[in-house]
Design a protein that fits this description.
Layout: H1 12-18, E1 30-32, E2 39-41, H2 45-63
Antiparallel strand pairs: 1-2
This protein binds zinc ion.
The site of zinc ion (ZN) has 8 residues, from loops.
Length: about 60
């Protein structure tokens, strides 16, 4: 994923580990950018799959 603030691309797991020490909850819904510390709301998996599906559809449309 890409940080909207500094533009750094990093793995989601990498960002999660940055928020491991969250005092409020262990499983924070935010992903912290390892570079600038900006907290990005995590995309729910269903939105992710929806996006993928959309991209797939778009790709096939472009082909034909
Ligand atoms: Zn950043």
């Amino acid at each position: 994923m890409k940080c909207p603030l500094c533009g750094l691309e990093f793995k989601e797991e990498y960002g999660q580990s940055a928020c491991k020490g969250c005092a409020i909850s262990k499983s924070c819904d935010l992903i912290k950018c390892p570079n600038c510390g900006y907290e990005i709301p995590r995309e729910p998996s269903f939105i992710k799959s929806l996006k993928r599906w959309k991209e797939k559809k778009y790709a096939t449309n472009r082909k034909g």
